Amino acid sequence: MAVGEAKTYKIPIGPVHVGLKEPITTWLEVDGERIVDIKVRPGAIHRGIEFMARERNPIQVIYLAERICGICSFAHIESFVRAVEDAASISVPKRAQYIRTIMLELERVHSHILWAGVACYTFGYDSAFNLGLLLREKVMDVLEAMSGNRVNYGVGTIGGVRRDITPEVAAALEDLIDYYRREFAAFYEVATEDPITKARMRHVGTLPPEDAVRYCAVGPTARASGLRVDLRWSSPYEAYADIEVTPIVPQDYMGEVYGDVFDRFLVRVLEVYQSLDIIEKALLGLPKGPLMAEPKLPKLLALLKAADGVGWSSIEAPRGDDAHVIKLTKGDENVTWWKVRAPTYANIVSWPIMFRGQEIADAPLIVNSIDPCISCMERALVVDKKSGSSEVLTKEELLKRSREKTRRLMGR
User: Fold this and answer.
1) Residue with more model confidence, 164 or 387
2) Residue 32: CB partners within 8 Å, gap ≥ 6?
3) Distance between CA 397 and CA 392 in Å, rounded?
4) What is the CA radius of gyration of the chain?
C-alpha cells in the first residue's frame, strides 16, 4: 500500500445486534469512522409460508397470512383476502369495508408509535422510548376489545369481517381518539423539538427524491423523500374511496425536504394524527348492513372451489405497499399458488444510498429508519442436498426462475 493511500475495512453489523430489532446482517465497508459502501445479507428466517399455502384452502391460508408479520397482521390479511375476492369475484358489504378501514388505521397507529419509540431508543433517548411504549398500550387495548387479541386479531375473512363495531367498541374508539390527540402531542414535541434529537436525526441516512424513485421506495420512506405516493390516495380501496386521504410529505409541513431519518420520523408522527382523523370519519359514517358477503362457511368454500383465475391486491400497509397475488383453480379446494411482496423488500434496496458517507454510529438508526420487517421480506436460501453447498440467488436469477415457475404453474 502506497503512503497516503486510503485503506478500508469491512465491519459486520448483525444478525444479532443491540441496535437491531430484527435479524439481518449488513457488511459495512469503512474508512475510519466513515461508511464507504454496504452489502446487505438477509438472515435465514424464510419460513416457507407461501409453500405451505398450497396444502390449504383460502380460508385456512388467512391464518398463515396473519402470521407473516405481528405488527402488520391485519394488513397482510387485508391484502390476501382482497386478492382472493378479486379472483373469485366476491363483493364486500359496505359496513365490512368501513370496519376493515378502521382496523387498518388502528394497526398503523400501533406500528408508527412503536417505531417512533424504537427509533428514539436506537440513539439513546430512553425517556421518549418509554413514553412511546406507554402510549402504545392504548391502541393495543382497543384492538383487544375489538378482537379478543392484542396481536393476530382474526377479524378479517374472505368477503367481509368476523367482528362488528359494538356500542362498547365504538365508545372505546372515541376514547382512543381523544386520548391520542391529548397525550401524543407530548411525545411529538419531545421527539421533534428537542435540539439534540434533531441533531441526531437530521442529515442522517439521506435518500434524495430521485433515488427514492430510482430504487422504488414505498410508504413512509418514499413520502419522507418528498414523493406523494399513497395507495389510499392514488388507488383508494375499502372506505378510503369515501374518506379523503392526502399523502403526508415533509415539504408541506417544514417547507423543505431532506429525505433523512428526521423526515421519516416526522412523516410517521404526522400519520398518527391522520389515522385518528380517518378512524373518526369512518366511525361517524359507519353504514348499517351485513358483515359478510356469504356468512355460511360451506357455501363460501364451494364458491371458492368453483373460482378459476388469478387475483391481485396491493394496499398501503404501515411500512408501504403490500402486494399479494393468488391463483385459484376450478375444482381444486386448495390454493394453487400465492405470492407476497412486502414493503421492506422494496425499501431495503435503498439502504446503500442512505449509508454512504455516514458514520458507523448511525448504522443502526439508518437500518431502523425504514422500519424493516425481515420475516416479511425474507427470500429462500437454496441448498443442494447432494453436495451440501448453498447459494444466494441474484436478482436476475430469481426473476428468471420466478418467471419460469409462473409459466409452469399457469400451464403455458
Assistant:
1) 164
2) none
3) 10
4) 22
Q: Are 141 and 148 in contact (CB under 8 A)?
A: no
Is the pLDDT at 226 greater than 90? The verdict is: yes
Of residues 23 and 343, more confidently modeled: 343
Q: Say yes or no: domain 55-369 is CATH 1.10.645.10.
A: yes
Determine what percent of the chain falls in helix, strand and coil, rounding each to the nearest 5. 50, 15, 35
* CA dihedral (143, 124, 350, 25) positive or negative: negative
pLDDT at 198: 86
Q: Of the candidates 216, 225, 209, which has an alpha carbon nearest to the alpha carbon of residue 395? A: 216
Query: Which grid coordinates are listed for 343?
Result: 414493503
Residue 159 has pLDDT above 90, yes or no: yes
pLDDT of residue 388: 56
Q: Dmax over Cα atoms in the chain, in whole Å?
A: 79
> Which residue from 62, 73, 84, 48 is spatially nearest to 325, judged by alpha carbons?
84
| 3-class state of residue 33 by DSSP | coil
* pLDDT value at residue 397: 82
